[in-house]
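Tutorial handout. Part one gives the primary structure; part two gives the three-dimensional structure as tokens.
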Amino acid sequence: MVGAILNKVHPDKFGYIKEFARRGLGRLGIDLLGVIPAESLLANATLGQICRTVKGTFLNGVTESRRRVSKVVIGAMSSTHVMDYFDPGTLVVTPGDREDILMAALSTGALTQKDGRVIAGLVLSGDLFPHQNLIEMIKASHLPVIASPLDSYTVASSIHSMTIKTLPGDDEKIERIQALIEEHVEVDRLLGKLGVG
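Part two.
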């Protein structure tokens, strides 16, 4: 073993854990070569990943499949209250026949498109679909919408338990990973121990 690198360290405890691990591993003769803080961007799934996980299909917005989801909300409350949760990056999961919530999401998306405050998208659960006129409105909007045969709770649970991977072409994540390694890992020492360079 050439050393250890700790990953996903909570930023509030970063300094304490780094020092504690350095001393503890040092007693075992193991060099601490880096401590990488947790980064929320790296834990955020894309709509495409979520669509596959929930056995869904895109009704609209398949071109936005790389859009990131930072929060999931189940739309089980009234449309007035669900709008309080319409923040950028939020995915709203709701039965497909909750037309009030769909209309609220569509109207909020239209109002906030210009300033970037758009929810990540919608998942219509339970193989339920709104009236055809509303489906046409969805298709005419910029809002990504996924239809899933799973119920709302199963959709939310499936998303929560996803293992998020960084895929080729995920440039934003790859650049962030490179920056984290450059900043928090002693790469030269690591390469020296591996006999590289």
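Part three, for discussion. Residues 34 and 184 are 6 Å apart (CA to CA). Residues 110-115 have pLDDT under 50 and may be disordered.
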